[in-house]
Amino acid sequence: MSALAEPIAAGREQHVYSGAAWSVGGADGPLDRGRHGTRSWDGPTLDGSELWDLASVTKPVVGLAVMALVERGALTLDSTVGDLLPGYRDGDKADLTVRQLLTHTSGIPGQVPLYRDHPTRASLLEAVRLLPLTARPGTRVQYSSQGFIILGLIAEAATGQPLDTLVDQLVCAPLGMRQTFFRPSPAHRARAVATEDCPWRGHLVTGEVHDENAAVLGGVGGHAGLFTTLDDMELLGAALVGDGRGVLRPETFALMTAAHTDHLGLRRALAWQGRDVVGSPVGTAFGPDSYGHTGFTGTSLWVDPAAKRYAVLLTNRVHPTRDGDGITAVRRAFHTAAAALSARSPAG
């Protein structure tokens, strides 16, 4: 068993998830990859064709689409919410900028279970519009899924195109990611890995978005909703190691992945999380300029530009319940092993 497979197998033995897939590689593709376990605890063995719910790893993919729109002049990082969304012009979010939404410094609270009281798309979006700010914009890093919901609306307003179409046209199609999309079809759902036995929905969620707010929005949101395969995540990882090739110009990509919030005590790039000194989800094995994102379902993508390496970890850690924090130790052990593999391998 490889050093990368060991923490993955241990995670299943500890019932952190029923299944996991991983890949570590560079601009030319994977150096080490594999899968372990089953699609659900009583389901079939993973065969490599699985669809995984990315959860919040959706955010940086949407962020790539937004930055592509910035390159094209459809909007700017200083464009405001009020500029692009008329319904926001008289509220407390009118002057928030695209940059603040991307860096989670807008002051919009996150992780708010709006779905409980707002069961339709229209009512949930109105609740987002009226959600009071809990910090003065630009003064605090405050993770906000609601901010990325608004970011998705901005991208749509700037182009007149649906968000899922934009993500496909600007990110997935250029990179050849043909198995990455919102709202899987019935045929695709048959390949999906199970997530939570959801008390709110009353059934085991498989092939439909796990995030409840995204579910109310119809499965497409700036914050969650993308499904993908390990193969497609390898394509994305390789593109990121290659400075965003195929999606962004090098200078735009450098701006996107640079640290923008160090003065606020936490390191955030544009739609990406930097490696914080304390509390990084991947530990300290990856370099100080590394960046990535994690997803609540147990997914992650992390890139170390100095080592020219990416690390992808896909799990269903919310199956059958979201209780438990075992994924924290698994992630750190996996990324420690991934960094050691990179150190032994020539840079790509």
TrEMBL record:
Residue ranges of every copy of the Beta-lactamase-related domain listed in the record: 8-327
Entry keywords, A to Z: Hydrolase
A Pfam family reported for this protein in Swiss-Prot or TrEMBL: Beta-lactamase
Gene Ontology terms, MF aspect: hydrolase activity
PANTHER family, sorted: BETA-LACTAMASE-RELATED (PTHR43283), BETA-LACTAMASE-RELATED DOMAIN-CONTAINING PROTEIN (PTHR43283:SF11)
Protein name in UniProt: Esterase
